[in-house]
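Hi L.,

You mentioned the student needs an example of a multi-chain input paired with its predicted structure. This one should do, with 641 residues in total across all chains.
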Amino acid sequence: MSQVSETTVDRPVNTSHMQVSSTNVAIEVIGMHKWYADFHVLRDINLKVMEGERIVIAGPSGSGKSTLIRCINRLEEHQEGQIIVNGTELTADLKRIDEVRREVGMVFQHFNLFPHLTILQNLTLAPIWVRGIPKAEAEDTAMHYLERVKIPEQALKFPGQLSGGQQQRVAIARSLCMQPRIMLFDEPTSALDPEMVKEVLEVMISLAEDGMTMICVTHEMGFARQVANRVIFMDQGQIIEQNEPEAFFSNPQHERTKLFLSQILH
Amino acid sequence: MTDLAFVRSDLVDAKPPPHRTSGAWAWAQKNLFATPLDTLLTVLGILFLLWVVPPIYNFFIGHAVGPNGTVEECRMETAGACWAYISSEMEFFIYGFYDIPEHWRPNIVFALGALLFIPLLMPKVPFKRTNAVLFLFVYPIVSYYLLAGGVFGLKPMPTEKWGGLLVTLIISVVGITLSFPIGIVLALGRQSKMPVIKTLCIGFIELVRAVPLISVLFMASIMLPLFMPQGMTIDKLLRALVGVTLFTSAYMAEVVRGGLQAIPRGQYEAGASLGLGYWQRMYFIILPQALKHVIPGIVNSFIALFKDTSLVYIVGMKDLLEAVKTKNDTALEWQSANTATTGYLFAAMVFWVFCFGMSRYSIFMERRLNTGYKR
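Structure written out for the whole complex:
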């Protein structure tokens, strides 16, 4: 399991936009099961995410956290139950899958930037070819988001020339360029040197402050405390416990949760 | 404070690296005479060169009969290569039996080809898209009518008469430009999730790849007519083109598949998560990287194809090598001890020049496409 750290960001988090007042459902997962061949990875997952919610999913490795969020944009297929994203149910229908993916951004543990394209090309590829936005406009948007993640000066470099933290910020900007309604983060800081974790968390916090709907699989418990409005704990492919961060950390209910927290929080 | 504690008070500035010993003598000492064994090997190597180089030089240049020489000189006991034979038969080697007064037609095709193809290879020349369209779609049609004739008052020239380097170049250029995209499609098909497409692609690749090119050409020349309506014949050149293209496509597919497998799954997923469709993902993300990885393999296949064109004599085409062989056997007026050898050497040199050119160009492309992301 990757290291667990408690990096916190020193500035106060502006929570004015972070109240979840929306009654619109962003994601609904109902009785979902998934198998890898004979192995039952996800068992009876039920989850309702409202617009503007910021959810952190924690749990030991192999507990199915990543698989769960990868099901939400159908990078993994589920075999039973329903997943409804922005009112569209995910089925084998490729058209619907692309429809959902357009509105759901994803940030990966290993960044997955396109190494043969410049940073700017990485950011404009999907807006131009998926959304049909003119190149000049797509580049303006891309520069806007690069400024937002504080690396506009890297626009013409290739991903291989950037540090891990910079690459991950580019990856976040690349997702934002599609102006998604939901952002999924799959252990975004686990592959980073400790010095770079903070710069990525800063960007994620500022996204949360703007009211973005976020689901983050992460071991950053400091981030969970500061930003999440709900923490979900998974083990053996099941949701074991979920609660508000304060209550989750100070008063875990399930034995498994207690054990997990005792191991990661010293 | 213990002895273990240490705090650096001032940081060390970067300084230039130490001087390297240079000069020819230092280089020779390091590379040629470092140990007694090295010295011995160096001496042996020099002796070997002294033994081998002079006869080669004498055959090719020293005692060779120049392009303006006569057959009598070629027949002399001491004569080396008979370049006079090559220069006198050059037209046949380039055009085959193509009517001599009509040679301007292939010449225009050669010139147009160079004019369109060379800028296409140079990354800095603009208008790539127009250039590619002209080369891939307009040029073949123009060339075909120019060479075959029968329109605009051009004398008809059946493909049986085409020959020499002309045929070698036609087959290799057409084979390369067609087998590359077909190979890519086959490689993608082989990875497809659709069972019918997957099976068809695997079947084709494994069948064609496991059969010698000669038998593919035999099949093309014997089997194809069987499927055609009675009385309808397929042009020999077309048969050769189909055979060579399909054969190389199968190899190309496997080379490209190797490249596809080197692309991490994350690249597919990143493309998918941005909402890019299958073909967009392949075209913008996967193939540019995959093909870059396998440039050496791709060029390997191209070079193999270029040399394999000499097998089209099977279907009765006279490519460069076959043209040389024909002249070697029939040009009685040029008979001498070294005539045939010189002919084959000439063919080998032409093949080498083209293949070496492809190889150098591929190295140039590899360097150019290296965006410094190797970790």
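You could point out the following to them. Residues 114 and 122 of chain A are 6 Å apart (CA to CA). The interface with chain B takes residues 73, 75, 98, 101-102, 104-106, 108, 110, 112-116, 125-126, 129-130, 158-161, 171, 174-175, 178 of chain A (CB under 8 Å).

Best wishes,
N.
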